[in-house]
Specification:
- It is a single chain.
- Helices cover about 0% and strands about 20% of the residues.
- By secondary structure, it is mostly beta strands.
- It is rod-shaped and about 85 Å long.
- Strands 2-1-3 form a three-stranded antiparallel β-sheet, with no helix packed on it.
- Bound molecules: zinc ion.
- Zinc ion binds next to loops.
- Zinc ion binds near residues 11 and 31.
Length: about 70
């Protein structure tokens, strides 16, 4: 069964609830019975990201030949 996490917008209480396919309404907060809850993303997918390719290309200052 799909279990989704919700957070109450009133008391910020986080709870889990089952979401049936036929039941499309959000659950209510079990703490304060508030109806406005936000569904959280499932924290199960972790993928590496933010690694830029082609690092380097650092322009070092050349040592000018002194004298001459
Ligand atoms: Zn609440």
């Amino acid at each position: 069964m799909p279990i989704f996490e919700f957070v109450c917008e009133k008391c910020n209480h986080q709870f889990e609830s089952l979401m049936m396919a036929s039941d499309r309404k959000n659950p209510v907060c079990p703490e304060c019975s508030h109806k406005k809850v936000k569904k959280l993303m499932s924290a199960g997918s972790v993928r590496p990201q933010g690694i830029p390719s082609g690092s380097g290309g650092f322009a070092l200052p050349k040592c000018a030949p002194a004298g001459g």
